[in-house]
Amino acid sequence: MFSPSRLTIARHRRAWTKSDLAKRAGVSLRSVSAYENGDTEPEADTLARIAAALGFAVEFFTAPDLDPVEPDSASFRALSTMTAGQRNAALAAGAIAIEFAEWLDRRFVLPSTDLPEFPGAEPEGAARALRQAWALGERPIRNLVHLLELHGVRVFSLAEQCREVDAFCIWRKGIPYVFLNTQKSPERSRLDAAHELGHLVLHRHAHAACSAEATDHDPDERVASFQGRQAEDEANAFASAFLMPRAALRATVPRLPTFDQLVQIKRTWRVSLAALVHRLHSIGTFNDWQYRNLCIEISRNGYRTQEPHGLDDRESSQVLAKVFTELKKKGQTRHDVAKALRIPARELEELLFGLTVSAMEGDGEIAPTPPRGHLRLV
Fold it and tell me: Cα dihedral angle (128, 130, 136, 142), rounded to 10 degrees?
């Protein structure tokens, strides 16, 4: 049976309008609208042309409906600079990632969700509370992706060819998802991940709206609006406080640090120089004059786009590494997984980009060491 929702999701993945698809597939705009609305189904030869134009197998469009990720349920930033096509492409990637995650859940026991919520809390206090709940103390966080996965957050890559899509997060069926643009610097990706974590713990039920299947007796099916200037400011403040706890950071900073000392301190906390300087200003270490001069120096040296002595290692996924190592033992490659999901292999690779070793051909070893965690086959 033809799935209208899958046609919309495939079209969105290409950032196409309905008119774009109609032209490329050689069908009328009215027909495309009718197919996506579920008013009629395309004939076999028409569906074949549509599938070929979109680069998906015909089988993708005849699988059970795929629930879309609605724009108001995601934590997109900079909506004013993001085109509708860019937003839709990222959301469609999210829908495919959720189906992949549910496919994994049927085959593995993944870490369960352990994510306290602090609705209405002050960001600094929420960051301290979460560190306490996760027994982190005030030490630097070595790998934030590993930490999120350990507590049940599903992490995927966006791999979008645009700077406007940084990251976003959603809740689906009680499971939190974070999507990162892994083409950004390691420091920027860490801050993005901490920002989305802030949304997850602070804003899940802010301006809550029920999804199509939700009821008042089923809170796990509710989705929240993470958007708005206040929510963004709170998530930024949370991210800064979570990555750089006030007391511990102050203990590592000399009274009048040199620029070289700041560079070394930012490497210790695994953040960008700009993020460190902003945090030190927010906690009163630097006055306005010092902060302004440091910002000028950072900009003059090009350190907003090219991090000085940047991190050598990009954060990777332990869960995904373990998954593909176990699948390989059973003779299953990434291409096999993509085929099972009825998606192009490239779609799967983009979800994994920057999070696991790429192995499009031959599916070589995914990780040199086995990850920690609670993942096991079922």
Answer: -100
Measured distance CA(145)–CA(229) in Å, rounded:
26
Per-residue pLDDT of the chain (378 residues; tens, 9 = 90+): 899 999 999 999 999 999 999 999 999 999 999 999 999 999 999 999 999 999 999 999 999 999 999 888 887 766 557 888 988 999 999 999 999 999 999 999 999 999 999 988 999 999 999 999 999 999 999 999 999 999 999 999 986 655 578 899 999 999 999 999 888 899 999 999 999 999 999 998 653 433 333 334 344 333 334 567 889 999 999 999 999 999 999 999 998 899 999 999 999 999 999 999 999 999 999 999 999 999 999 999 999 888 999 998 889 999 999 999 999 999 999 999 999 999 999 999 999 998 986 543 344 333 333 333 455 555
Q: What is this structure's pTM? A: 0.88
Q: Where are the domains of the chain?
A: 4-66, 72-243, 246-300
Which listed CATH number (1.10.260.40, 3.20.20.80, 3.60.15.10, 3.40.50.1440) goes with 4-66? 1.10.260.40
Task: Determine contact, residues 102/154, Cβ cutoff 8 Å.
Answer: no
Q: Sheet harboring 175-180: ordered strands across?
A: 154-157, 175-180, 167-172
E-strand stretches of the chain: 108-109, 154-157, 167-172, 175-180, 209-210, 222-223, 376-377
CA 31 → CA 41, 55, 139, distances in Å? Answer: 9, 19, 58
Nearest to 198 by CA among 241, 156, 164, 158: 241
For residue 307, the one-letter residue type is E
The contacts of residue 251 (CB under 8 Å, 6+ apart) are none
